[in-house]
Specification:
By secondary structure, this protein is an all-alpha fold. It has helices at residues 2-23, 27-46, 48-56, 59-85, 90-98, 130-151. Helix 1 packs antiparallel against helix 2. The longest helix is centred in the middle third of the chain and has 27 residues, at 59-85. It is flat and about 90 Å long.
Length: 154
């Protein structure tokens, strides 16, 4: 009964503030304030306030919240331990299954062995004169700056 009275008073005060705001010709803000002020009365009329009141003062409800919190704590502890131990996540397991995870890997190997049809990667061709490439890259960088300077007449 007290909660319903408080909600009604809050709604009445909000509607009063909305009326003053509308009197100042700020109709959009007044409409928004009126909408917010009608929420507490709507919650009372739907019974949500009574449900929350009954839940807040019910010992069995608090035991249920405690059990839910304990379950969540156990779940998060196992997730933390799983990640710390290095167990792959669900996404990693799916990626490994989709990526052809049937290659044979020796226990001490750092990479999977080559399959029957796989070829080793060919090494990339090294540039004959790396200084020329660096000079060409530097010219490309300065060409932008030169274009800007020419544009401004410098």
């Amino acid at each position: 009964m007290l909660a319903e009275t408080i909600c009604s008073a809050v709604s009445a005060a909000g509607l009063g503030i909305a009326a003053v705001t509308a009197y100042r010709r700020r109709f959009l803000a007044a409409t928004r304030i009126a909408a917010y002020s009608l929420v507490p009365v709507g919650l009372v009329l739907t019974g949500a306030v009574q449900w929350a009141f009954d839940t807040a003062f019910s010992p069995s409800a608090w035991v249920g919240f405690g059990l839910l919190g304990g379950a969540w704590l156990l779940f998060m502890t196992t997730r933390f331990a799983e990640r710390r131990r290095g167990v792959p996540t669900r996404k990693e397991r799916r990626a490994a299954a989709a990526g052809g995870g049937n290659e044979a890997v020796e226990p001490g190997a750092s990479a999977p062995s080559l399959g029957a049809g796989a070829r080793p990667a060919t090494p990339q061709a090294r540039p004959k004169n790396p200084r020329k490439q660096q000079a060409a890259a530097a010219d490309d960088d300065f060409s932008d700056i030169e274009a800007i300077l020419k544009k401004h007449g410098i």
